[in-house]
Amino acid sequence: MILTGKRILLGVCGGIAAYKAPNVLRLLQKKGAVLRVVLTLGAEAFITPLTFEALCGEKVFTQSDFLAPPPGLIPHTELGRFAEAILVVPATASFLASLAQGDAQSLLVATILASQARVLICPAMNHLMWAHPAVQENVEKIKGFGYEVLSPGEGELACGEAGPGRLPPEEVIVSYLERLVAPKDFEGKKVVITAGPTREFIDLVRFLSNRSSGKMGVALAQAAWCRGAEVTLIHGPLSFTPPPFLKRVPVTSAEEMKEAVLTHFKDADLLLMAAAVADYRPEKTLSCKLKKDQPTLSLCLVRTPDILLAVREVKGPGQLVVGFAAEEGERLSVEAERKLREKGLDLIVANDITREDTGFEADTNEVLILSRSGRQTRIPLASKEEVAWRILDAIKECGGGR
Ligand SMILES: Cc1cc2nc3c(=O)[nH]c(=O)nc-3n(C[C@H](O)[C@H](O)[C@H](O)COP(=O)(O)O)c2cc1C
Predict the structure, then answer these.
(1) Among 15, 9, 56, 14, which Cα is nearest to 37's?
(2) Which among 159, 226, 300, 398 is annotated as catalytic?
(3) 159 is catalytic
(4) Å from CA of 134 to ligand 1 middle
(5) d(CA 381, CA 105)
(6) Domains of the chain
(7) What tens digit of pLDDT does each residue of 167-193 get?
(8) Distance (Å, rounded) from C-alpha 334 to C-alpha 131?
(9) What pLDDT, in 10s, does the model give residues 229-242?
């Protein structure tokens, strides 16, 4: 994955959210990043170097290493050269002021000044501090240096007050870091992605649906966002909350999904139809709760609209459409090939729904990609995150990226 083997310097400042920094470090480790940590003097009042040393098995640099380093080591230039990316979590108002001024009194700021690494800064503080013009001016100045500053989230703060100032969730911070270091090969592309199941209501409370979780579609949306695309995620009811940075259009039924897809496809470059859209819906939906007063019950089902066929009708010359097929074992490639032709797709991604570790609900997937030109790509079993990345590679080879 994109962070595997990447050399990341994690800078931790003296804010109350410093206790969340080890979680960020753990997540980065899981993604395969190679880590070094610098704590500011303020950070040491909140959390000890030992916590980070125990987690990453490396010496953690503190302010006392700066002007009294081990012989032969110049920490700020050494660390500055080491880092491919620098992540500051949390960044305090005082750190922002030092960086905006280019004040190299702290090891962390000196390291940033002495580095060509990309820098992501995640401020967290009391909402009045964050809103203060001095802090905002420093943030603007820092952005002007080419560093990325992730705006804090809103909500209850450690001081008991509420407002913007919270550190964003650890997973969100790591996603922004991934985006910072990812190739921007989908920059300027408008990508529409569908995900999850649809629900076709029988009565007020009951519906027909399927086992789709939406994980594959959301992984694709996240990968495309990471690689610079402008993403719209159209999704049915998901089994989890997608990341907040994705632009979302929630829908419920197949009919609603069709309308949303046709609206957003108009000016899109690429459509990825990863949703598991219901093929049938009840002919009628009762506006009350169906009573259990009959020994048997028959439902009359009618076909839902075929979204890919509707898209085919309006597809322009530069637009690429990728379908997904959930098929059983041996029929996988035959059925995928048939769907590719029938629906006029550019690519089809087929996965086997008979296996536990692929397809619906699983965290992993293994897919076969077929292209209109006859190219076949098999992506072996991997996390849906990784498979999503590889699907985008295949789309790029087909002319979908930049
Ligand atoms: C209990 C407590 C919590 C604090 N939380 C924050 C905070 O969340 N954000 C912030 O910018 N400063 C916070 N401060 C102020 C910083 O700790 C102070 O500005 C310190 O000098 C920052 O050091 P550093 O930027 O070198 O890490 C807090 C101070 C205390 C005593």
Answers:
(1) 9
(2) 159
(3) yes
(4) 16
(5) 49
(6) 7-181 (3.40.50.1950), 190-397 (3.40.50.10300)
(7) 999 999 999 999 999 999 999 999 999
(8) 59
(9) 999 999 999 989 99
